[in-house]
Amino acid sequence: MSAGEEIEIAELLAKLDGGAPLLVLDVRNGDEYASWKIEARRQFAIAHIPYFDFIEDQESSLARVPNAESEIVAVCAKGGSSQMVAEILRRSGRPARSLAGGMVAYGEYLETVKVPLRPAEENLFQIDQLNRRGKGCLSYIVVSGGQAAVIDPSRAVAIYQSALGRADARLAHVLDTHVHADHLSGGPALAARLGADYFVAAGAGFDLQHRVRALNGGDELRVGNIVIRVLAAPGHTPGSVCYLVADRYLLSGDTLFKESVGRPDLGGHVEEWSRSLFQTLRGRIARLDDATVVLPAHYAASSEIGVDGVVSATLGELRRALPELRMTESAFTEAMKRALLAPPPQYAEIIDANLGHREVDPERAIEWELGKNQCAASGGPAAQSREARVR
Amino acid sequence: MKQLDVRGAKCPIPIVKAKKEIDQMQPGELLEVIATDPGSVPDFKGWAQTSKTAVLKEQRTEKQGATDLYIHVLERK
Q1: pLDDT on residue A83
Q2: Which one of A174, A258, A390, B48 has the minimum C-beta count within 10 Å?
Q3: Collapsed DSSP state (helix, strand, coil) of residue B74
Q4: A212, A241 in Cβ contact below 8 A?
């Protein structure tokens, strides 16, 4: 198969984001299609015809492909069946390519965007937001004076490594905001590979096997010319923290999102963790300035990506927009209880791996991480309106 | 029962080969497909729903050492 017959995920997303006329033809089975599909910053044409329909009856399946002048991109789980379908389409005279690596490639792809800073700050440091588009996971690289910190890295550590190389920065700290339940942390591997310190606070009751540098709320980490302050933020997990970069950029982890707050139900103590989350949001975070820029660890819908490509909001904007930040403690706890969702698939195994209790081979890692993150409490009033906006 | 060994093959190969095999069989004959791709489980189910020649009689998982085998039993319509 020649390269011209496949399209890389970066090119596909750039085309869809830019509104290029293109038909995405998803050829996975119905359940896979229903639970997780490609999203972009604009609406685009997407059709679903399973690849096995083309095997069973090529002619009638071809007749079901929507008529359009535009190029067709066939998408499957790993990029094998979509090659077959793209070839069938080309033989029938339709311009078609196959998404290289399929939904696995979509789920691993990281798009790097610069967080806009104030002019005076630009000379001192930079923050990159790495957007894992397929999962809605966000991680960060903070660089200042030849040093770097990486926050909430995903499994694809080589991408962070090459970004650090381009920035000519030495990795000083690898920080997780909490023990993730929806994706495997790249933290321990990245820290070990580049000889940096790794930090994650699990909280009481978790048996953390990784060698980590102890950090507590109130601690400060230096990165070149700036300081990252550690804010204890129990709630989503007992050990959750937020990192305040240069006193203005709040890497809020799964504590506070652009359209919701973190779900406090994954430990089976929803009442207790909800109260912790309430106290975190109304105590430590409430003391921060309205101009604080919130940079979360996740987002739920592509509509949350701003025109500058960054997922962020100021605390002032969130205070006005999110009812969860205005409720009484009892109303908040009730809203969190109503928001109970099924836990992410494989979350117990993923937590176990992130605590360092087990090694995970790459094949299994891919399987565990399929699908979007489900880290926000989404039964509350804000979330209901959000659900309505999502297709 | 006829057997089709597609261990190690990724989609679409297992269904491509199963379709080829089943189309040459006589009505009522059985075909046992042995696969290692876990994705073959929902995909054989999905294919059998619309297939004009194959009926899915049984699906089961067997261990072969550290490998999971996904076994699909099809009947020629």
Answers
A1: 97
A2: A390
A3: strand
A4: no
Residue A202: pLDDT over 80: no
- Domains of chain B (ranges; CATH) run 2-76 (3.30.110.40)
pLDDT in tens, A107-159: 999 999 999 999 999 999 999 999 999 999 999 999 999 999 999 999 999 99
* pLDDT surpassing 80 at residue A207: no
- What whole-number distance in Å separates Cα of residue A302 and Cα of residue A290? 25
Given CATH 3.40.50.720, say whether it is the number of domain A3-106.
no
The CATH-assigned architecture of domain A110-389 is 4-Layer Sandwich (3.60)
CB A261 within 8 A of CB A324: yes
A51 close to A37: Cβ distance less than 8 angstroms: no
List of chain A residues whose C-beta atoms are within 8 Å of the C-beta of residue B51:
56
pTM score, two decimals?
A: 0.89
> What is the distance, to the nearest Å, from the Cα of residue A87 to the centroid of all Cα atoms in its chain?
33
* Cβ-based neighbours of A147, under 8 Å, separated by 6 or more: A169, A170, A171, A172, A222, A223, A224
In chain A, what residues touch B39 (CB-CB under 8 Å)?
77
Nearest to A54 by CA among A76, A36, A38, A31: A76
Look at A29 and B43 and tell me if their CB atoms are within 8 Å: yes
Report the percent of chain A where pLDDT is more than 90.
Answer: 74
B16:A84 CB<8 A: yes
C-alpha A270/C-alpha A268 separation (Å) is: 6
Predicted ipTM? 0.96
User: If we measure between CA atoms, which residue out of A145, A144, A163 comes closest to residue A153?
Assistant: A163
